[in-house]
## 1
Amino acid sequence: MIHKRVIGHFIPHQKEDGLHHRAKALNLSYLASYLLILVLFGSGLYLIKLKAPQILGQVTFSSDQIIALTNAKRAQSGLAQLSFNSQLSQAAASKAGDMYAADYWAHNSPSGKTPWNFISSAGYRYLYAGENLARDFSDASSVVDAWMASPSHRSNILDDHFKEIGVAVASGDLEGREVILVVQMFGTPVSQIPTQQPLAQASPVPSPQPSPVQIARVQEKPSPPPSPSPEPTPSPTPVSVAVELPSLSLQSEQNTQATVLASRKFALVKGASLGLTAFVFALFAIEIVYTLRKSHLRLRSGVLAHLAILAFVLLAIWYAVGGAVL
Amino acid sequence: MLSGFSRLALDVKQLKMKRLDILAHAFLILGIAVGAVAIYRLRFDSTNQFLVVLIITLFYLLWGTTYHHIKGEIEKKLLLEYLIIALIVIISGFLVFAQ
């Protein structure tokens, strides 16, 4: 008897009146309770994140980790390691600061500043340059994995033209939320042009196409054309224009890091949403299978539509990642 | 007892309804498939992914209302079922994508 009752909750069943009824767990009151559970769960997590985020985990990650992971990906593809460059690192930090100050999430600032402006302002004279951005990730490997999964960002990481790297990891308030930004800048300094190579061939890369939608990888011909023996240009910044060789001491000095509070929140939310949606999806799927097996029964109207929308959201949640790249 | 003409009219009506069912569901699945492709293409852009979830859920609600209205079986209970499922989808999407 109890066994029958339990089954009646999850699969369609025939009552004493001889009529077939949908699974009790699909009644309107039950569906409304699933919705309520989801709302309460989301509100609870929000409150915990607000009052005691450490309960949801705490992770610190640094720019050095991002550089190490980037170089590991390059090594896996048989490419040379990128050297740390303090000017690129300074440019990345300036870019992150500007994004917080002007409140934007884009390669170009609302006032029209491009990544190349930051690189040039830091005193770095480049032949090739590129920028990858990331936000809201809770650890360094998730950031690099997300870049590697995106073709344009991956091509920046695995670009053989780039010789140097600078990364900034910074936390702050962006678009009304506390976020962690990762700015990764790549470059090849003008000083690395092979001397025997004619100038005309030294910069065969087309100029960037400024467009509202900025692609992550941009190669730019430097505004002052490179000369075979580049002279340091006067710069308003106190940073030396000459390309500096990477040094371990510099790397640790310029290492930036951020602490992610409530780092497990995304995993919890993803798991709970996936579990609840999958449960409702399974109930509708069982109803369809049950009805199809009983030739005298007709499929309840709307069930296929419910199944389709639930399948859609299941897929969307399954592929969701805890951050964004640009 | 139905006359031959009435039975024929009933058969035609059932045939039309069957065709409507197939076309309507094919349209719904096509729309949702477009949404799924958009979600995949917008990986790492959670704001726009959430926007896609919203649009597809709205499409599902509109589809449900229109479909059941045409079939003449629209009722409060059915609409409520659509609404609750739409809310489950939206809140799940909000929690995951708009964190």
## 2
Amino acid sequence: MGRAAIAALFLAMTVIGINGQGNAVGQNAAAREPRIAGHPNFNGLWQAVTEANWDILAHGARPGPPQFGALFSEPAGVGIVEGNEIPYQPWAAEKQKENFKNRWTADPEAKCYMPGVPRATYMPLPFQIIQGDKQILIAYPFASASRIIHMSDVGESPADAWMGWSRAKWEGDTLVVNVTNQIEDTWFDRAGNFHSEQLNVVERYTPASENVIQYEATMTDPKVFTRPWKISLPLYRRLEKNAQFLDFKCVPFSEELIYGHLRKK
Amino acid sequence: MKLTHIAAIAALVLGMTAPAARAHHSFSAEFDVNKPIKLQGTVKRVQWINPHTWIWIDVKKPDGTTEEWGVEAGTPNTLFRLGLTREALPVGTEIVVSGYEARDGAKRANGRDMTFPDGRKLLMGSSVGNDAQSK
Amino acid sequence: MRPAALATLLVLALASLQAQTPAVKAAATGATKTPWGDPDLQGTWSNQTLTPLERPAQFKDKSVLTEAEAAAYEKQLVAAGDVDNRTPGTVQDVNLAYNQVWWDRGNKIVADRRTSLIVEPPDGRIPPLTPAAQKRREEDRKASDNEKSAASWLDFDVYSRCIIRSALPRLSTGYNNNYEIVQSPGYVAIMQEQMHETRLIPLGNQPHLTSTVRQWLGDSRGHWDVNTLVVETTNFTDEARGSTFQYATKNMTLVERFTRTSDRTIDYQFTVSDPDTWTRPWTVKMPWNRIDGLIYEYACHEGNLGLEHMLSAARAAETKSK
């Protein structure tokens, strides 16, 4: 093949490359544009790599339900809470211990209830951020929880919701989400760490690199804690070529636990 | 309009049925058609939850004691879009509920018809109609 | 032909092929665009309408109403749908549940005054069901009639169990017919108020999931056809009552088309095909109208006292009959 032919073929490949932006490859590339409507681009499938859903505090390995042997036993973790302390009021510290004892049935995750914020962020499942030029939407697979991050003034929530009411603003390159109106029944983890309906969560999403978001959340709840406290952890982009958000509609998995006593004998 | 036109329209709408729509679950599997009930009481608490709002009322019995009844209503989201919030039905409000009793014998009923004692319908305070949102 | 000429031809051929890609075509039109150049469907929408799916028998072969007919028909539908005018003491009365204020069915038929949402076949009716599909419909009706003596939650449909509101594609129902669309480069996300799930539609030509992976809302792939978002969905599941659309099998194919026709309207069309269910594919056309209100979380499973109470009613009836 002559030099001209090679050059022409090279050109042909370039043409495919450029125009391919209208197709899958190009759209993935576009999704990786560093900025969108002037802000950092958080679009993508993200996942926390942490043992925090078992216990947000530092913990050693623990057994799971005995009938399953080593399956579902709990891996040790260094924790995600700053200072490794949740500042419970005395009554609340007792309540957490009670929750821990009953966790195999009392954890709302067992019942496939929407996990609330921030727990949805560090459950062991990837979640997808859809960041447009107007709104931001976060879809979590567990219990099909979705959350609209309102970027405009929508006022107060008319009622409480499992995933709360999210209103956000940009502080430089950090997306700051104020989450109010969460239902009191969600937990922070499988260890029974909990809050009341007065919980206010302020989340901060800051780009750390192309494939890492630094995530922080500050919890304030005067009914349960003596002071605000904070978690922080990185979120990693799922980089598999065929990475895809998949359903995790867990309702059918929870029905025996919830309604089993009402089954016809 | 000519009479023939009116007749033609009348013919068109004849035999028409209501649009198919159902509540989240079969209320006749939950409540007993043979047990209609009328309750008058004061609102104790309201759960503005989905799929159904629950209104809990204290009902005074003839012997002077009170009994708590749960009344099942519809999705609150529709009301939120009408501008109502959870403050729309404050604790202590006196209401009258006509409905059917639960099949399992518990003190629950569906809120087939909910009014204030003077007959005004509940939660209809807003001047916005149900369709103001879709233009 | 010399290699260089061949390569040049190849370049031209590829370039012209690529010029046909949807994104490039879309860029050539003047419709509202996102900053990254896709047609903009974003916002909060409702598919609420009073127009029935199928043309009612009384309209015979009339596909479009006159203005006067439409006004009268709307009035009639609104009156018929007002649950405050109902006959006490009937099962239907119990099933209508609560008074009118909680319902949100709408008060308008579609703006083009069609007598049915179905546009294909032209008679506005669902094509004949295959014998197998008729059997599935019969079984579902029987199951529905037997809910009062349900042995377990498995005897209820996906809506009563709070798994999904209904299979795709979505039709207008009694309330919360709302959707929020958010777009990003390479994705269209449709958040469905009922039941708080997001349909994530990747754009491009990635293949569908392998056929062994089934999802309650299937697996969607989208692309732009000029200004129209075309979404093909497969990989449905039939694992529960009501988990497929209109008695179809899990192998149904759904093709949806979303076209922004004005600031306040998306023209929504879908075609469903399933040779094991219908004798031919059929197509629906209905508007998604912008709403000025917000979408609120429709948590369902978390507060599903109804299912618990129906099961406890079934158990109570057994105790009584013993």
